[in-house]
Automatic annotation (TrEMBL):
CDD domains documented for this protein: PHP_HisPPase_AMP
Basic residues biased stretches: 27-41
Biased composition (Polar residues): 8-18
Annotated region described as Disordered, given as residue ranges: 1-45
Protein name according to UniProt: Polymerase/histidinol phosphatase N-terminal domain-containing protein
Domain Polymerase/histidinol phosphatase N-terminal residue range list: 86-151
Organism: Populus trichocarpa (Western balsam poplar)
GO molecular function, one term: 5'-3' RNA exonuclease activity
Taxonomic lineage from the root: Eukaryota, Viridiplantae, Streptophyta, Embryophyta, Tracheophyta
Pfam families according to UniProt: PHP
Length: 449
């Protein structure tokens, strides 16, 4: 961009000014610079929100005082990174994504993502791998899951599938066994559902093989529509994934099938009971979003997706406001490539939206973490120890014991998971006293990734 000094010095040697055409072009550039060239200054509310979000994201890193904005003491990273990118909707090979959790994290890092929620369909099995990779790249993981459910109103014709996103603390869900049983039942239904889809395709004279689908799905992964669609593309029955869905696999399509999806209210209630934040996924895909949101708000729904890579959808933003719901969003990234998919980190979530999310989530996560440690303090078994370490970036090691007691464990975990204010409560002090008498089994050690 040419500055004013250069413009003033650009008169010709006779002292005459630039031609009217050149002057007009320069004025256009000036106007363009004034309209969009300079960064818009944040309001006090936005500054406070950004500061609060950054402090939570960088709990385990040193923050330094930078300068003062609007009388607010601004805290920034040592590297002076201005923007904290949250990616709250992603999938890996543990459901219907194309990338492993570690590759997903690596790609997110390349795209500048600082907080990543892995939300595979009906499973949290990829979280430990994602957390381990995230430590290497300096990314914070929010353990998540996208739960397949069914909305069943009185009119059977209005029944439709609904997906609910659950976001948990770094310690994972409380009552994790109950949640896992719930998810396992849905996954079992996914096998039956995919087999039925293959059967329907065969009846439509598309002789797709079940073995082809399972080969694409991978060992131990519950198949979904995307796996069936990929098999159809490979077999040459359709040209691409979009065509597979548009012709055969769309909701209510000729090869569509349902599985063991629970009622959507049950899923929302269980998320709330296990220390999670429940968010309605892609409401724009629903036939009757208002009726669904009304029912789910009563069940405990915390938020809904409103933001996409192409911006905020005003109608859903208004719905969220009407029902007092958080406004969130994510790319729904699967890693299939091409222009039809939003890239990781492409959804621009405002600092105020993130601050509102954390303002709701952090008290929920605080109580979940407290419950997990209380359970271990009351029954310091290897099983309860494993529940603590499963999602939180720790590994149980054999033959090495860098920590002598449960208090060491809680001190280290809480320094990574909670703020100083959150962890220095009477509740956690009481738990620490109990755990100071608990010795971690000989031959078992903990390593923090």
């Amino acid at each position: 961009m040419v500055d004013d000094g250069f413009v003033n010095a650009s008169s010709n040697c006779n002292g005459n000014q630039e031609s009217p055409r050149k002057t007009k072009d320069i004025n256009k550039k000036k106007k363009k610079k004034k309209r969009g060239g300079s960064k818009k200054k944040m309001t006090v509310e936005q500054t406070l929100a950004s500061k609060s979000v950054s402090e939570w994201v960088y709990l385990d890193r040193k923050l330094v005082a930078d300068d003062f904005d609007f009388g607010v003491h601004k805290t920034v990273m040592m590297r002076r990174e201005d923007k904290v990118v949250f990616e709250l909707h992603t999938h890996s090979k543990f459901s219907d994504g194309f990338l492993s959790p570690s590759k997903l994290v690596e790609r997110a890092h390349g795209n500048g993502v600082k907080v990543l929620a892995l939300t595979d369909h009906d499973t949290m099995s990829g979280i430990p791998e994602a957390t381990e990779a995230a430590r290497r790249f300096g990314i914070k993981i929010i353990p998540g899951v996208e739960i397949s459910t069914m909305f069943s109103p009185r009119n059977p014709e209005a029944e439709e599938p609904v997906h609910i996103l659950a976001y948990y603390s770094s310690g994972g869900p409380t009552r994790s066994d109950e949640l896992e049983k719930f998810l396992a039942n849905i996954r079992d239904g996914r096998y039956l559902r995919a087999k039925d889809m293959v059967l329907k395709l065969n009846k439509l004279k598309l002789p797709l093989k079940w073995e082809h689908v399972t080969r694409i799905t991978g060992k131990g992964v519950a198949p979904g529509r995307l796996h069936v669609a990929r098999a159809m593309v490979e077999a040459g029955y359709v040209e691409n994934l979009k065509q597979a869905f548009a012709r055969y696999l769309y909701d209510g399509g000729p090869a569509y099938s349902t599985g063991n999806e629970p009622l959507v209210e049950e899923a929302v209630q269980l998320i709330c009971e296990t220390g999670g934040v429940a968010v309605l996924a892609h409401p724009w895909a629903l036939k009757n979003p208002v009726a669904i949101i009304q029912r789910l708000k009563d069940a405990g729904l915390h938020g809904m997706e409103v933001y996409r890579s192409d911006g905020k959808l005003a109608v859903y933003s208004d719905l969220a406001d009407a029902y007092g719901l958080l406004k969130l969003g994510g790319s729904d990234y699967h890693g299939r490539g091409g222009n039809s998919e939003s890239e990781l980190g492409s959804v621009n979530l405002p600092a105020i939206a993130l601050h509102d999310f954390l303002k709701v989530a952090r008290p929920i996560w605080y109580h979940a973490i407290k419950d997990i440690f209380e359970r271990y303090a009351e029954e310091p078994s290897d099983l309860n120890l494993a529940r603590i370490t499963k999602f939180g970036g720790t590994k149980i090691l054999k033959g090495n014991s860098p920590m002598s007691c449960g208090k060491d464990l809680i001190d280290r975990c809480l320094s990574l998971w909670l703020t100083t204010e959150e962890r220095q409560t009477a509740e956690f002090e009481a738990i620490k006293i109990k755990l100071s008498c608990v010795t971690i089994n000989q031959g078992v050690g903990l390593a923090f990734l």
